[in-house]
Design a protein that fits this description.
single chain, 124 residues, alpha/beta, Rossmann fold, five-stranded parallel β-sheet
């Protein structure tokens, strides 16, 4: 199974995602900070990042752009519930940055697991 980092500033969302992915046998690490997640990915050997887009200290778009420079092969799934604009707009931007999947909040554990499986099996 995969080594996955989940980045979200919402603790309830983090726990829900972790519970479902751990039930699938994945090794899951949680982070609420964009800068901490980027630093962890540099040294952690993660296969996949699941990142929220709207966060206070470093948004998911900034995280994705940093990782495309630092760790181009890492698989990324972007999630968003929206903000000042529609969630779909944020997710379309993430798509243009080369993520391997997107999910609009709210989503189910099954949808998350399917997106993770699809991203992990998608060519880089």
């Amino acid at each position: 199974m995969a080594k996955i980092l989940i980045l979200d500033d919402n603790l309830d969302m983090l726990e829900m995602q972790a519970e479902h992915l751990r039930a699938e046998g994945h090794d899951v690490t949680l982070s609420t900070s964009g800068p901490d997640a980027v630093a962890g990915i540099k040294t952690g050997g993660f296969d996949l990042l699941v990142t929220d887009i709207i966060m206070p200290d470093m948004d998911g778009i900034e995280v994705i752009m940093s990782l495309r420079k630092l760790q181009p092969p890492i698989k990324i799934i972007a999630i968003s519930g929206g903000g000042r604009v529609n969630a779909r707009d944020y997710l379309e931007l993430a798509d243009r940055l080369g993520v391997h999947g997107t999910l609009q909040k709210p989503f189910s554990g099954i949808e998350l697991c399917l997106a993770v499986d699809g991203a992990l099996h998608r060519p880089a």
